[in-house]
Amino acid sequence: MTVKRHALTALLGAAIAATAVVSATPAGAESAPAKPTVVLVHGAFADASSWNGVVQRLRRDGYEVIAPANPLRRLADDAAYISALLKTVKGPVVLAGHSYGAQVATNAARGNANVKALVSVAGFLPDEGESAAALSGKFPGSTLGETLTQVPLPGGQTDLYVAQEKFRKQFAHDVPAREAALMAATQRPVTEAALNDPSGAPAWKTVPSYVLIPTGDKNIPPAAQHFMADRAHARATVEVKNASHAVLVSEPGVVADLIERAARETTR
């Protein structure tokens, strides 16, 4: 009996030792790097909820996501706000912007070395001195101007809204009518000044850029978006056939896929 106990003890000891060897991390091996944080900047006539479908997919795939409220007041102030947020994020960041939000993003990324990629979704990638208004008028095709309503503000500024009855056709023709109606009613205005403010030195000149272009965009002509993507030497340009300016709402999977591609290629 004593001999059998000794033998059993020896076998258990050997099994524990073998398990330890198998489970131990090999010398010099490194754990997989953490995924970057994705920061999503909404544009004019929208709010952060426009990213909801994209956020759900990114979080499902293991990404931390922040979708802040973009003030939509003045370009320099909006960019400063997003820049301050970026400074609080630990680790690498993939910064995506929709429409005017992409212009804010390329200004906000300047001086934030943790931003490893920029993703423009139906957005602006201006050079220094260029404005959103000028770029949207650089090529024919935008019908945004004729859909806007103005609200004069104290102090002399003017808020711009897309008229609700024109919103779906102009902004979100591929979004279900009921959802587009909610978007129209809850849209956040942008100031006329913000759309005419000149850009500062853009981060796209030093940060890898990825561009998604909806070919049915009636706000920013697809030709203008291709021009900006080519000028920025985008690592990838993805077209979404017949999609509206609200492509992040109508095709969140395609948008999330491009953001995740940018994350994989720039934060290995």
Automatic annotation (TrEMBL):
Domain of life the protein comes from: Bacteria
Coiled-coil boundaries: none
Signal peptide: 1-29
The protein's name in its UniProt record: Pimeloyl-ACP methyl ester carboxylesterase
Ranges where the AB hydrolase-1 domain occurs: 38-257
UniProtKB keywords: Signal
Keyword presence, Signal: yes
Pfam family name, one: Abhydrolase_6
Keyword match Signal: yes
Gene3D superfamilies on file: alpha/beta hydrolase
Single GO MF annotation: catalytic activity
